[in-house]
Amino acid sequence: MVQFFLEVVFTILQSKNTGLLSRYIPNPKERKIVLFSMVIAVILILIGILYVALSYQTLMMEETRHYKESFKQLGSISRIGFFAVIAIYPVFLLLKWKKIKEIHFGEIKLKSLLQFLAKWVRKWHVPVAFISTAIALLHGYLAILRGFKLDFTYITGIVTTVILFYLMVMGLKRYKRMDKQWHLKLGIGFLILFMIHATFA
Known about the structure:
Strand order of the largest sheet: 1-2
Distance between the termini: 37 Å
Oligomer: single chain
Number of domains: 1
Structural class: mainly alpha
Strand content: under 5%
C-alpha cells in the first residue's frame, strides 16, 4: 500500500509535461533532488505514524515527563536541521559584500571559502529542509497525541507550522523567482517564531 502510494506521488510530481514540480523547477537534476527529498520526508512520516500506531498503548501509559522528553528530542533534531537550512542566507549575504575580497587568513581567501560553503548549503538546502519538516511534524503529532492545550507553547507551535507550510510553497516558487522575496521574508519570520517556540517550550 505504501509502495503504491509513493509510486503514484512520484508519477504525478515527476511527469515532464503535467507534473507539479516541472511547472516550477525547469532543471531536471534539481527536480529529482526535490522529489527524492519529498519521498524521504513522506517515508519518515509514515514510519513515525506506524510506530505510534504499534506502540500506542505503551506511549499512553508512559510517564508524562519521559513522554515529553521523547517528542522534545524530535523537536531538537529538527531545530538543528533548520539551522543548517537557514545557513544559506548569511553565506550568500556575505558573498554579496564587496569588501569580502579583501579578507583572508594567510593564503586562504574568505570569499573562496564561502563560495565552497555556498555550494554545499545550496545543494543540501532542500533535502535537509524536507527531512527537518518531517521530523518537526512528527514532533507536533506526538505533542498533541496525549491532549491539546490552548497555551503559549501549542499556539506558537501551530503558527510556526502554518508559516513553515507557506515557506515551502514559496520555496517552490523561488526556483523561477516567482516568490517576490516571500521565501526570504517567511524564512525570517519562521526563524523568529521557531526560536520563541523552542525557547519557551
